[in-house]
Amino acid sequence: MLEPEATIICVDCGGRCHLLTHPREGGVWLPGEVVAYRCEDCRDRWDLVLPDDDQPEGDDNWI
For residue 2, what pLDDT is reported? Predict the structure, then answer.
């Protein structure tokens, strides 16, 4: 089942970014959905696209 990480590492400052986006009704996440994170240290926001199962590893998921 596809699910974004609860936290990621901020590429700007190295701090922890927490998931802001909530799942759709029923807790479902879909490939191609945009999820947002906010860094607790520098307050930057990061928007990422959830990968498709068919997407080759290493493809860029940043918007």
Answer: 86
